[in-house]
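Predict the holo structure. Ligand: zinc ion.
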Amino acid sequence: MRIDTNPIVRLEDYRPSDFLIDSVELDVKLHPTETRVVATLAMRPNPEGRSDAPLALDGDELKLKTVALNGRTLADEEFEASPQSLTIAQAPRQPFTLTIETEINPTANTKLMGLYRSGGNYCTQCEAEGFRRITYFLDRPDVLSVYTTRIEAERGDAPVLLGNGNPIESGSIEGSGRHYAIWHDPHPKPSYLFALVGGRLGRIAKTFATMSGRAVELAIYVEPGKENRADYALDALERSMRWDERVFGREYDLDVFNIVAVSDFNMGAMENKGLNIFNDKYVLASPETATDMDYAHIEAIIAHEYFHNWTGNRVTCRDWFQLCLKEGLTVFRDQEFSSDERSRSVHRIAEVKTLRARQFLEDSGPLAHPVRPTQYREINNFYTATVYEKGAEIVRMLKTIIGEEDFRRGMDLYFERCDGTAATVEDFLKAFADVTGRNLSHFARWYEQSGTPRVKVKGQYDSGAQTYRLDFAQSTPATPGQPRKDAMAIPVALGLVAHDGLPLNATCERVDERGVFLFDRPEDGITFTGVTSLPVPSLFRGFSAPVKVSLDLPNEELLVLLRHDTDAFNRWQAAQTVAMRLLAARSNGADVADAEIDAFSAALASFMERDAQEDPAFAALVGTLPSEADIAQEIGQNVDPDAIHRARSEMRRRIGLSCARHLRRFYESMTDLGPYSPDAASAGRRSLRNASLDLLAAADPSAGEALAVRQLESASNMTDRLASLSVLTTLPGAVREEAVARFGERYRSEPLVLDKWFTLQATIPEDGTLERVKGLMQHPAFSIANPNRVRALIGSFAMLNQVQFNRADGAGYRFLASIVLRTDELNPQLAARLLTAFGTWRMMESARRSHAEEALRSIAQKPNLSRDVGDIVSRSLE
Ligand code: 0A1
Ligand code: ZN
């Protein structure tokens, strides 16, 4: 394997910057290939830094034109410059001005970091280390500066010019066809929050009055002609701002808030101060082009980026190891927002499904790392489910442990103390320790220890004494770099449920007034008294901790929870646990008595009969079996994806047959009541109807096909149209091919819709799919340079198509390896993300495992890999 020479950055090596930059004046003359940037930096030595240190600025692929110190151009021997750095050995020990002129080529920038072009427009992406691709800088999050940006461009090319902060001046440059705009951001910020945009863009706007009565102009900029597709995003922005005022007391702090949608973007969106830049898929929506899920994602991501204004921007991170300080907390905030705007329990189930599918998976594979990592080779590779999603779970657990009121008081104190600073996880926890008087040092282990804790629980009822005892044991498996683990502080929200569902007045002194037991040792036990009949324990209500639970209860008892638990999450969980037991056993070739499957189907049928109507979205979730990937994760070793696929298909068929009467009823009754609306209640009806269609088709393919064809033709919105096409893709034959072709034709000029079409085809669990994917790479709408297209077609194939990516002959792995190498030359971040699909290779059966290893090695031995890909491939093979 190739030797990795990339230096490792370590948390323990952190030291303050030797210099500070109080203000930055940037003058950017936009040009497609020769953009000129003049940066004027007001600098001074940092009293907390070393007094003899040289001034070493970061760069990346930069071309230096000139550098001047206090207005005097420096001679060549007075500094050292390369595309990667600019060093002045003898920098002044008093405040000074450094003026640097660089030239950059936005058109050649395919990495989509720094200044680049998307759809002919200019835009920037600076997190984490992209600002150094614009000018030489102290490109680290603990250097905070006030920015003034002057942007100049051809008026015809870029009539719209946007920067951070407030607009302060604009005008024409006489006789040149050029114009300029000046933006000033009064809030000191790190360079990763810098942004500018120049281009031809349409705009929608509205005025927002903040809680203290200030007027803020909210605007969204999109491709001209698509303005009305931004209405939902603008509405979501306004709701987010109101929510943050109401729930966290946080007010917006500039005169304008701008959002720009671009079509080439590596991630979801970016929280640049006052100028959020979004992947257009998380802004643009119309009933004809977007699904209910798209609307929900738009709402969540608009909120997420807006919430960063306080958790990320006003309080930023001291260093990149603290990434979870802004990301975990902001995900928690956006989840709370979505829960308040929609159905809390349905949303919680969705959050947990994502957490398990992505974060538990990551935590059990070669890329496992702590929520606050202690070292990295490439920071771009740490924008992970662990930092984001598990990071959010930690904040949620903290709130569960200390309670709502103290949580709010702690947040207030955190904002008060840390506003305007670059903070750490310790600063965050200290605010909560101080308001509650609690010692949170044991809790802090959640940030340090990687791996998903397992909790084993045993229950014992003593009918004579009317007590019920629960014994808990915890352990966390070894993960890379962490062979041994300590016990975690695990909040267990719990209760007891009687078999007949009637309330049990049992009590336990170890359970607090919010129903939470804090399990913080390797083993512990608690006893309930006053238990008048045999109960079923309902544990980890609302998924109170990100752990894997095993509870040795028979299926019939678990199904009591589906029927009677007051906690909706655990009702859903009970059905999932039973389904998972049956599916895992079947996939492993174990004998599962038909009676057990029948009992499960009957429980589902009676749930559908009794409760489904009340909350259709919840019912749709209960009726959806664990995914093939979830089953693989549960099995954990020697996985045969084909066996899993067969077991799950068979179970879907059986459920479809035994619940057919209810499913047909839902299919007929859960129709749209009026014109399309993306609200949660309407979306819930559609989801139950479409989940019913899916099960009906599994039970009776030809009847299902007929229903799906009819729905595809008559659908009035993308949710229903796509759901019917999705059902058709599971049914091979001419009808499917015809439907797929017509859909592709109908949306040929709608890239975001074609992405869904790419994904559907890439996830067909049949042998021809790899060839189909290769064929689709030739489609005129496909582009290897556009991350959305690549992820929709190739990312989905690798991440979602269990049987075809993990083909027994290794062709899926070899294909992905070739794409990773190809994309690495253009866009290393994209390549590295695709490569994470190999995270499950070690859990496959041996033939697949060796094919995967060979594919990984073929990547590893290539010369000149990017740092992004080099890092992932070497960790995947370790
Ligand atoms: N801070 C953003 C995520 C983000 C990170 C890196 C990027 O560079 C390509 C872009 C966006 C967020 O959490 O929304
Ligand atoms: Zn974020």
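The longest helix spans residues 344-363. The pocket of O-methyl-L-tyrosine (ligand 1) is lined by residues 125, 127, 266-271, 304-305, 327, 383 (CB under 6 Å).
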